[in-house]
Amino acid sequence: MSPAPHHGESAASHPEPAHRAHRAVAASLLAVSLIAASAACDRQDPAPGTHPSPSASPSRHDGRIDTGPAQVTSGSGGVPEVHAVLRNEAELSAFAHRFGNRADAITEAARTTDFSRTALVGWSLTTGCAKWPSATLRRSGQRLTLIAGRHPPPPPECFVPFHLIAVFTVPKERLPSEPVFSRPKLNRKSDSH
Known about the structure:
By secondary structure, the chain is an alpha+beta fold. It has helices at residues 16-43, 89-96, 103-109; strands at 63-64, 68-76, 82-86, 118-128, 135-140, 143-148, 162-171, 180-181, 185-186. The strands form two sheets. Strands 1, 5, 6, 8 and 9 form a five-stranded mixed beta sheet that branches. A hairpin with a 2-residue loop joins strand 5 and strand 6 (143-148).
């Protein structure tokens, strides 16, 4: 706090309180203008012919979207890393045949799919040295993410990689119009599901 002016001194000879007041007013004006600019940006409509950002409005279907896996297999050896929305039997068959002798088991597990109401999402990946026995499918905006379930820790020595092949059943209305496949999340045994 500045000392009070002595007799014979004017307040003008001590400019510090006035300087602080000017700084406070300037800071307040800056804050108000930033808030106004931010609000104006939020109200802007997209340019004609463009689509709003998918992250701007979360879907009511965000979160887990599968009604269960039609099939999940995990075993040793690598697999082709594939992910696709399968909207009919031909697409299911093409997906399944990428996995050689596992193709029949994949198509058989999904044979009762009603493609008029549901689609399948196929996802395969090499998972390193641990076996993942379960998975779920989640959506955030246009993004789809495979969430692998809890699993035992990998062995201390890794001789052969493991893989996961999952085919999820998803009601069509829960799928994004233009799905983007995100990097899978592979939970460890201690992680929550």
